[in-house]
Write a structure and sequence with these properties.
The complex is a heterodimer of chains A (about 300) and B (about 325). By secondary structure, chain A is an all-alpha fold. Chain A contains twelve helices and two strands, in the order ββαααααααααααα. Helix content of chain B is about 80%, strand content about 0%. Chain B has about 325 residues and is an all-alpha fold. Classes of the chains: A mainly alpha (about 300), B mainly alpha (about 325). At the A-B interface, helix 6, helix 7, helix 10 and helix 12 of A face helix 2, helix 8, helix 9, helix 12 and helix 13 of B.
Chain lengths: ~300, ~325
């Protein structure tokens, strides 16, 4: 960078043509995607995730049978050509049920994380940006929330609301909002001291406008990273609830429900309970690895923090 | 140190207040007569009450249900403070008695899991930090899989392998260590391992990264240069400092452990508090769930308090900030 004398005699920095030329070009999305997936773990988990999402979207086309289609003649068959992963007690095709299960679990995961962020992020913004009392008050509530053991809290909420897909999603979201509140508050505290916020205020921007247009966009990256890491946890919590028989009703093939169906027969037909678990582990594993990679790329400060 | 401890204790009071408010208002949200929850009998279905509406009124005023909400809340907290957790809607028994029967079981299981986790987690973490390459790869993979595996599924997998196929251990059931210690170990082994899979993975990760950080420090090089044995360097010099961040995780893992025991007790048919919580949720026995939320949250608040105080003792810098 060279300095040239300005018209007023002061010295102002100016970027010369050569330095401009040397500056790295901002990568296009394709280049960035290639870079992102150059990590082998990210590549494998990316492929797996794509597979799960495809399964979820095109379940009715991919699955050889409907998830509730019963064939009493063919109950509890081991894996065969006709039934790739065997059948359960009611003669339902386990492979098809796992594929439909992806639909439920992936959807619940995304929506629960969304609900948690929608509750937690505004609370964090207000706590971080507001005065000391607002901050103290909100953060004490958040601390109390964190003291609840997850599963017990979920049982508590569902015993008030009653079971059901939507209620489980809301319960999961309400349960995990504090992480977002804390994270957003921390980001807001540091962002609000920055010069561009002072500038925005000097220009007469209202507080809400500053929060929405200047603070939030700058706090977004770690929130996205946290969301991706929380997705796996949400799916694990949902499968746990379904396994306990609380939350999602029996005909809906959540992965947890399929395991619960197979559980009484593990002595004679262990595959019914074991196979859906492989899907859970692979899905959560790929989501977690993807989250790790996102964190390394988007927010290197957090590296190794999990 | 004392000042720091007192400050930490005071700061956990608001948490307890909020927990009591939340459980109280949860009760208000429940449909039906609040007397139901206290008496364990639905007043609208009971003939005695239908015949004597005055009796109902008297009961209402005795339990303060005709009072304003804020007074009711104060009464609720007062009952909690006296250890009155209400009556179960299903078994009609005082909840405190039901918890007393089950607490030793859940506590035994949780503490055994807890110490196993800490031991496996630290041991694997140390080995992984000291032996980069294959050993580290194996240990790290364990951690990655541990974080992605639901513990109830790990439990089922272990039952299939160790009980059904190999026949080494019983599939389910419970024998208390104070009844028959040798036999109880057989029943405890799988629940402990299955519930500890996730927890030990987290502790392992933290120990590994903490130790790797510390091993680069100058004082470790000095200790080695003095000619100390590797074991001494690790045990006396490195681990002490590396364990500081891991200690927080160890304290926090209690919450995970309590949630985990709910599932583990279900899989292995262990009659503990977690099992009670699931049964209560299934039968909409709200007072029982409410009591379990309060008890388990108090346990966690207490554990966090102890963790913080011990942390302050281990690392004096914390006390000042």
């Amino acid at each position: 960078m060279t300095s040239v004398a300005g018209a007023d005699g002061g010295v102002s920095p100016m970027v010369s043509a050569e330095t401009l030329y040397d500056m790295p070009e901002r990568d296009g999305w394709f280049r960035r995607a290639v870079k992102f997936f150059s990590d082998s773990k990210a590549a494998v988990s990316g492929v797996l995730l794509a597979l799960f999402v495809t399964m979820a979207i095109f379940a009715p086309i991919i699955a050889p049978y409907h998830y509730a289609e019963q064939d009493r003649q063919a109950s509890l068959q081991p894996p065969s050509q006709e039934h790739l992963l065997g059948t359960d007690r009611l003669g339902r095709d386990i492979f098809s049920r796992i594929i439909y299960g992806a639909r439920i679990s992936v959807r619940i995961g995304f929506i629960a994380v969304g609900i948690a962020a929608v509750i937690g992020v505004p609370i964090g913004l207000v706590a971080g940006y507001g005065n000391k009392w607002v901050d103290e008050g909100l953060m004490r509530i958040v601390d109390a929330w964190l003291a609840f053991p997850n599963l017990i809290f979920l049982l508590f909420v569902i015993s008030i609301t009653g079971p059901g897909l939507t209620k489980v999603m809301i319960a999961l979201g309400v349960n995990s909002f504090p992480i977002y509140a804390r994270l957003t508050r921390g980001m807001t505290l540091s962002i609000k001291e920055r010069e561009f916020i002072t500038a925005a205020r000097a220009m007469g921007g209202s507080e809400w406008r500053i929060l929405g247009r200047h603070v939030l966009p700058n706090a977004l990256q770690p929130i996205i990273v946290q969301g991706s890491l929380a997705l796996g946890a949400a799916v694990l919590a949902e499968t746990s609830l379904s396994f306990l028989g609380i939350g999602i009703g029996a005909p809906t093939p959540s992965w947890g429900v399929i395991i619960a169906d197979g559980f009484p027969m593990i002595r004679t037909n262990p595959w019914v309970a074991l196979l859906p678990g492989v899907a859970i582990v692979l899905f959560v594993l790929s989501v977690n690895l993807m989250g790790d990679r996102l964190r390394d790329v988007m927010d290197p400060r957090l590296r190794g923090s999990r | 140190m004392l000042k720091y401890s007192i400050r930490r204790m005071v700061s956990s009071i608001p948490v307890l207040i909020i927990v009591s408010m939340l459980t109280f208002f949860g009760q208000q949200l429940m449909p039906g007569d609040p007397l139901f929850a206290i008496l364990g009998v639905d007043p609208s279905e009971n003939e005695d009450f239908a015949a004597n509406p005055e009796m109902l009124e008297e009961l209402r005023s005795r339990y303060g249900l005709d009072q304003p909400m804020i007074v009711q809340y104060a009464n609720y907290v007062g009952r909690l403070a006296q250890g009155d957790l209400g009556t179960s809607l299903r078994s009609k028994r005082p909840i405190i008695d039901m918890l007393k029967e089950r607490l030793p079981i859940t506590l035994t299981l949780s503490l055994a899991t807890y110490f196993t986790n800490v031991f496996i987690g630290i041991a694997l973490g140390v080995v992984a930090a000291l032996r980069p390459g294959k050993v580290d790869f194996f240990a790290t993979s364990y951690a990655v899989f541990g974080a992605a595996t639901p513990n109830f599924w790990a439990a089922i997998l272990m039952i299939v392998v160790f009980s059904v196929w190999l026949g080494w251990l019983p599939t389910s059931g419970w024998v208390a260590p104070w009844d028959d210690f040798g036999r109880s170990l057989k029943y405890l082994a799988l629940p402990i391992l299955a519930n500890g899979f996730f927890g030990s993975a987290i502790i392992m990760r933290q120990t590994r990264s903490g130790l790797m950080e510390v091993l680069r420090q100058d004082y470790i090089v000095t200790a080695r240069a003095k000619g100390l044995a590797t074991r001494t360097v690790i045990m006396r010099h490195a681990l002490k400092n590396a364990m500081l961040p891991a200690w927080t995780v160890i304290g926090l893992s209690l919450s995970t452990l309590i949630s985990g025991s709910v599932l583990i007790e279900r899989v292995f048919g262990i009659p503990g508090i977690g099992r009670l919580a699931v049964d209560a949720a299934q039968t909409q026995d709200f007072p029982v769930i409410q009591a379990i939320v309060i008890i388990s949250t108090m346990a966690i608040v207490l554990a966090n308090l102890v963790t913080d105080i011990v942390y302050g003792y281990l690392d004096p810098r914390i006390r000042v900030s």
